[in-house]
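Hey L., structure's done. Input below.
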Amino acid sequence: MNQLELNTMNTDETSQFAERLAAFLKAGDVIALEGDLGAGKTTFTKGLAKGLEIKKTVNSPTFTIIKEYKGKLPLYHMDVYRVADAYEDLGFDEYFEGDGVTVVEWAHLIEEQLPHERLTIFLYRGEGDTRKMVLSPKGERYEQLCKEIFR
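Output:
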């Protein structure tokens, strides 16, 4: 499947798309988020958390690297921007193969540790609060997921 594009007009629409996506997720799913600072990665993750019925406030785990949230499915929110060594063993695979959904901000920094099959979402800033999201599914599971979400 080719990449899919979606444009949102504001942060609410970005969050709403992520919330809708959450309804299709299952344990073991991995979403890799890419984008410059301020592109909307954390806004997207907040929407995903809402869709997973997480009540706790979600914020970027910049200094802790991983935050865990309990909801309909656990959410493992990673921000690997400050990981010094891409090969450093921080136990990421335990999360990727766990009973929740994993979201990785700045995922390219640990490319070698990511599961081959995943959904990568590139977020690009437009004018004002507009965003372009490019979804790049890798693997049958994520290709099917994209077909379902864009029905």
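Strands lie at 4-8, 30-34, 66-69, 75-79, 101-105, 118-125, 131-138. Helices lie at 11-22, 41-51, 92-96, 140-149.

-- N.
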